[in-house]
Design a protein that fits this description.
Two copies of one chain form a homodimer.
Chain A (H helix, E strand, L loop, with lengths): L10 E3 L17 H27 L5 H12 L4 E2 L1 H8 L3 H13 L3 E5 L7 E5 L1 H21 L6 H14 L14 E3 L2
Antiparallel strand pairs in A: 2-4, 3-4
Helix pairs in contact in A: 1-5, 2-5, 3-4
Chain B binds a DNA duplex (30 and 30 nucleotides) through helix 4.
DNA sequence: AATGACTAAATGCATCTGCATGGAATAGTC
DNA sequence: GACTATTCCATGCAGATGCATTTAGTCATT
């Protein structure tokens, strides 16, 4: 078990010495766009770091484990094809394969044979897996509240969502407002 | 030289079965905050991936190299203490050390002795380093425009900045609107 | 000037990642 | 049915990362 930290600092540098024949010519990308890019990189990095650190301090495995466990637990039968997990999580194939290895090693999931397609398999979440997912949500949700919820009004959070969605092909579900729901984080 | 991809999928799952004695009790974190968290993780990942891929396809090294080269090139003397680079880039100490190794290996920077503090050293950007930084900015800026600038009006980009800054302790410079400027991306 | 606390930077080690490839089963084509 | 293309998953390998430690130099106190 080990923490992942995604630390990366993006810098964007203008070289203003070229172009500008006329005074009305706009810079591309605009100052605003560049600033937004920078903020997006920096803030995400910081917030993710902070959340991962909190989880880690609470003795939990990386968030990726949570994501996988959640995805599995939400499947009606508690099992998924690796290929589906891969698509849900948007991580590369080999990454999924190894993540499953680790979950299985820790007894959080089990590999099961797939009879209809013998190339494939099913990954089934275990009771221990379900329990870990639930326990992690306690720490995870607290971290989200601490690093995001408490800094933004609901209205502003919604605005942020809207703006971000325009960058990312919206890429996800918007959680239905009822019970036992989940929202995918990338 | 090798690309880094920061792929990570965050999922946040509510377990709605507890709490709610009264109908007025608000969920913490709120649905909006959770959705914002998810978008932040997902969109950043996608946009960063896309930009890194473009750079890679153009035959350039990872963005981290660019960040370091920009930082060095902006230093008045073209040199910086590793510890300063570390602080600017917000990456861990060992990471800085090894990044410098690679830059030096490729002839993009050079280590120089620091006379006033013999523990330390200076890292100086070379001509090749300056040139690479400039050439990378061509591809980099195009990617920012493609994945951010073109998707958002300047006003919306500015709004996004403002909202993100509230999450991240503002963590950065806002580029002065004149020439030869740069904005730090995390 | 000796001690101890602290800072700058490098590095050993285990793990993780990306990439490319591999094998095995299925689907499509003639 | 033989051939090829495609899909599903695993894995070898090289490089990158995180963590802890080491080495070396500085500073403060006495």
């Amino acid at each position: 078990m080990q923490m992942h930290r995604v630390r990366y600092n993006r810098r964007a540098g203008y070289d203003e010495t070229s172009t500008y024949k006329t005074g009305t010519m706009k810079r591309r990308p605009s100052t605003e766009a560049t600033a937004a890019w920078i903020r997006l990189m920096r803030v995400q990095s910081r917030v993710l770091d902070a959340v991962e650190q909190d989880l880690k301090k609470a003795g939990f495995p990386p968030l990726a484990w949570y994501d996988a466990l959640l995805e599995l637990s939400r499947a009606p039968t508690g099992e998924l094809r690796p290929v589906e997990l891969e698509r849900q999580m948007l991580i590369p194939q080999y990454s999924t394969s190894r993540l499953i290895d680790r979950l299985v090693e820790e007894g959080l999931a089990a590999r099961r044979e797939c009879k209809v397609d013998k190339r494939g398999q099913f990954v089934e979440i275990t009771e221990a897996g379900r329990e870990l997912q639930k326990r992690m949500w306690g720490a995870y949700s607290a971290a989200i509240e601490k690093y995001v919820g408490s800094k933004l009004s609901d209205a502003d959070a919604a605005k942020l969502c809207g703006l971000l969605d325009r960058l990312g092909c919206s890429c996800g579900e918007m959680a239905p407002p009822a019970t036992s729901e989940a929202a995918s984080a990338r």
